[in-house]
């Protein structure tokens, strides 16, 4: 193998097997859910009541929808970046949906003002947005990597433009 070939193989991440994928996603998700709950606990103890927003208007049907969405993320997260993004999304969802299931509310305390004036976020909301950005970056990178691995002539590498006198493909 040439040095160039070795560098090219090292640049492409290997697809993750299902057990490894589950381990990566679970580690990230549980860590971020615990961080979310810890920050919300800190906020309820240390912040004034007027600095907290307790959202009770989240519909219960979001819990089973989130479970189905998490299963879909686990199924498609085949690269390390996609697994990280899936873990971050699932961790943010676990933080918010777990609090909703246990306490009937979600604690928001970060005054961000996005997407509308006066909007208040929780750490779980930040994790959801960050995870979606990571998933988008991983999905944008994944088809190109698969094409490079397969050596597809149209997508795997650039073809030089045909000159005026070059034969057409398939001509003797």
Task: Explain what the structure shows.
With 172 residues, this protein is mainly α. It contains five helices and four strands, in the order H-H-E-H-H-E-E-E-H. The strands form two sheets. Strands 1-2 form a two-stranded antiparallel ribbon. Helix 3 runs antiparallel to helix 4 and helix 4 packs antiparallel against helix 5. It is elongated and about 75 Å long. The protein starts with a helix and ends in a 22-residue tail after the last helix.
Give the topology.
Blueprint: H1 3-11, H2 18-46, E1 53-55, H3 62-76, H4 80-103, E2 106-108, E3 110-111, E4 120-121, H5 123-150
Antiparallel strand pairs: 1-2, 3-4
Helix pairs in contact: 2-4, 3-4, 4-5
Report a brief summary of the structure:
With 172 residues, this protein is mostly helical.
User: Order of strands in the sheet with the most strands?
Assistant: 1-2
Q: What is the typical, i.e. mean, pLDDT?
A: 81
User: What is the assembly state of the chains in this entry?
Assistant: single chain
Q: What is the radius of gyration?
A: 23 Å
Task: Supply the number of helical segments.
Answer: 5
Label this structure with key terms.
mainly alpha; two-stranded antiparallel sheet; two-stranded antiparallel ribbon
């Amino acid at each position: 193998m040439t040095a160039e070939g070795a560098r090219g193989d090292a640049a492409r991440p290997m697809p993750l097997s299902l057990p490894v994928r589950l381990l990566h996603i679970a580690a990230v998700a549980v860590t971020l859910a615990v961080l979310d709950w810890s920050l919300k606990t800190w906020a309820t103890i240390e912040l004034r009541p007027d600095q907290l927003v307790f959202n009770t208007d989240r519909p219960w049907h979001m819990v089973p929808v989130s479970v189905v969405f998490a299963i879909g993320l686990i199924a498609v997260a085949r690269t390390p970046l996609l697994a990280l993004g899936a873990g971050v999304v699932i961790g943010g969802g676990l933080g918010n949906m777990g609090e909703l299931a246990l306490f009937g509310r979600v604690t928001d305390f970060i005054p961000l003002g996005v997407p509308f004036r006066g909007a208040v976020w929780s750490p779980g909301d930040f994790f959801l947005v960050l995870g979606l950005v990571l998933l988008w970056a991983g999905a944008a990178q994944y088809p190109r990597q698969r094409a490079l691995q397969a050596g597809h002539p149209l997508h795997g590498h650039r073809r030089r433009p045909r000159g005026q006198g070059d034969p057409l493909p398939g001509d003797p």
